[in-house]
Amino acid sequence: MIARQVFYEGRVQGVGFRFTCKQVARGFEVVGTVRNLPDGRVELRCGGEREEVDGFLEAIGESELKSHIKNTTVTPITPLAEWRGFEIVA
Asked: What is the DSSP code (8-state) at residue 85?
């Protein structure tokens, strides 16, 4: 299992970004969270098999969110044992 922390910048709050990420996650075997940050970015943390994680992140980048994303930063992280499914968090 691998895990990634992704920061999305641009017009990514107030456009259904987190909801769309959760919808896209349903098509992949991934676990994790997505949340808005006070500085206007969105943070996504996800884990799963490499092919699933890579496919999930690619699908987000190719979704209707594409026009709202100005910059994406991806960092490898340690998978969290408490992840169950994919959730929107506050």
From this structure: S
